[in-house]
Amino acid sequence: MRILVTSTYNYWGSFKPSDLRDPTSVAQIGGGETAMTNIARELAAAGHEVLVFYNTERAGNYDGVDWLPRSQFVPIITSLEHDILVSWDDPHACRYCDRAKAHVLAFQLNDTYVTVFDAVIDRYFHPSQWHADRYLGLYPEISK
User: Fold this and answer.
1) What global pTM score does this model have?
2) Cβ-Cβ contacts under 8 Å for 14 (sequence gap 6 or more)
3) CA spacing 20 to 30 A to 69: which of 14, 24, 60, 140?
């Protein structure tokens, strides 16, 4: 499967995915970035083609995952056939006429904006059952 992953994270600036495993790295990497990177890596290890759109310090292939500049996100999702679009805490990524067969919104934060985007989101991923229960309480329109 071809899986495209994106987020608008950039709270701590850019980093290289290899910084997560480098004990000498001074890059500051948050929990959302860490989760996104690790899940992308595991999806690639499971045999999927994974492209991550993020303003990383250096574009390239890390652990089988192709990291591309966020500026290439819209041109590629609207022209490249892909099976799944996973957006990390950014429902706005689902507003384009992309080529995905399924759209997943992964929540890492404690609050988000859903509203009309729920109509185009096929699945929600939460970091814990507590998060899932909280979101269902806050956003009863989320039923997936």
Assistant:
1) 0.88
2) 55, 56, 57
3) 24
Which percentage of the chain shows pLDDT scores above 90? 42
Q: Report the DSSP beta bridge partners of residue 53.
A: 6, 68
The residue to which tokens 């989320």 are assigned? 142
- E-state strands within the chain: 2-7, 49-53, 60-62, 65-68, 84-88, 102-106, 123-125
* Per-residue model confidence as pLDDT tens digits over 34-90: 889 999 999 999 999 999 999 887 899 999 999 999 999 999 999 999 999 999 888
| Cβ proximity of 53 and 68 under 8 Å | yes
Q: Which token pair is 129? A: 């059952």
Compute the distance between CA of residue 96 and CA of residue 41 in angstroms, rounded to an integer: 25
